[in-house]
Structures are given as structure tokens and as C-alpha cells.
Write a structure and sequence with these properties.
The chain is built from 4 helices and 15 strands. It has 278 residues and is mainly beta. An 8-stranded antiparallel sheet has the order 8-9-10-11-12-13-14-15. The two termini are 43 Å apart. It holds the Pfam family DUF538.
Length: 278
Amino acid sequence: MATQIESHRTGAEVVKGDAICSKKTIELLEEIGLPKGLLPLEDIQEFGYNRATGFMWLVQGKKKVEHTFKKIKQTVSYASEVTAFAEKGKLRKITGVKTKELMLWLSVVEVYIADATPEKVTFKTGTGLSDKDCNPMASQIESHRASSEVLKGDAICSKKCVELLEEIGLPKGLLPLEDIQEFGYNRATGFMWLVQGKKKVEHTFKKIKQTVSYAAEVTAFVEKGKLRKITGVKTKELMLWLSVVEVYIADATPEKVTFKTGTGLSDSFDATAFALGE
């Protein structure tokens, strides 16, 4: 889209210089009903807006600017040229904007405020990243209870959880639930579950600055080096909570733990980040 700047220049309002360009950017965002701080570029050399086509662009002096929105701890990258089509409550067909998710930079293609939720800004990436809150496996606890080892009480449940993770070769701090009321493991089927007293626990693994949410019920099928068909575990990406469906250590990279989400997105982290107490 950035190559289309010249084709939209005719009939466009074009201004140069950081001060006036920043002012015009804020005015346009305000006009279409989006937050005024959405495009915090630096040293803006040119701003252009073709009102007839809705095409807008920004050219900044720096090759790239990364900005972290502090309240949500979200880092966004802005290229030297940022373009979009502007309309009421929306920037669409965006180019030059990326957000950092699972240590990957994903292109942001649309930003909008829906009429139903005027207090929220939604970011859409080129991957079609989205998530649904579902937990079908948790309902299977009762069907796996027969012949399972079942324990109750936080201390013994935490101990058994750590022992199981150690047995299958995963980091012992991978499931830092709180006030665990029940631990169950059916060795014949490989099905395990944890029930905690709290509705949800959020834990940030400090070394990788990754926040993970654990529901009241967490379930998975366990095998050597892997938890699969996980339910009740989510990771926060692009201000969305994405379900983690698999966690594993590959034979080729025993020092890395890989997380796979329901969207197909995956990434690997140093196993030491999930040591007990981290």
C-alpha cells in the first residue's frame, strides 16, 4: 500500500514538518473517532490525506519506531511509511504497523471501534488472529475419574503436579496454579486435571515477560515431553486471550519449550523461564 502514496497524492491535503504533521494526524484520528494517541510516530516528515478516497499516509524520518502502550504493556512498531484508508471509527488496509506477539511481529491490518463497544479499540492482524472462550475438555474430568489417582488439598496437589511435569520432562514451574483443590491423573489414558479454588489465576513468567491465565479447571493429555489438547490455559496476545492447546519440548531443542495456540500460532522460549518459582 505504501507504493500507492503517489497515486493518491493528487487531490490530497499534504503537509510537511513534524509539528504540523503530528497535529494533522491527531485531528484526523479525532475526526474519525479513534484515540488521538494511536499513531505515535516520531520526526514525521510528511502527512497526506485524500478525503475523496479516504487514503492517508505518514512518512517519518526514522526507519522504524517502536512504542509501548504502558497501560496494556503492548509494543507496536511503526515503519518509515504508514498508510491506511480512514473511515468513521476505523483504519483499514493498514500498512507499516506491526504488533509484537509471542516474540513475533504481526502486521496490523485494521484498527476499529465497534458501535456495540465504544470504549474498546480492536486490532486485527493479517493472520486473522482471534480467540473463542471454550473449554470442552474440562467436562471430561468425570469420564476419566475412574481408575485415576485423585488427591485433594493444595500442598499435595502442587507436589503431585510438579512430580508429573518432572516425570514427563517438562519444566516444573509450568502450571503455577493457586489453592489447588483437586489433582487427578489417569495413567491409562494420559488425562490429567487440576481444579483450583480461584476462578482464574494470571501469572507472568518474568524472564520472558509473558502472561498466562489459568482457569478454575485445567486439563490436558500428557505424554513424554508434551501436554496436548490442553484446556483452561490462555496466553495474552494482541490484547486477546488465546487458548494454549499444546506445550512441548522437541527432541532437537531440549532447552526450548514450545507453546502452540488454537490459532496455529506458536513460539519457543527458554525452558529456564518456567523453572519452579519463576
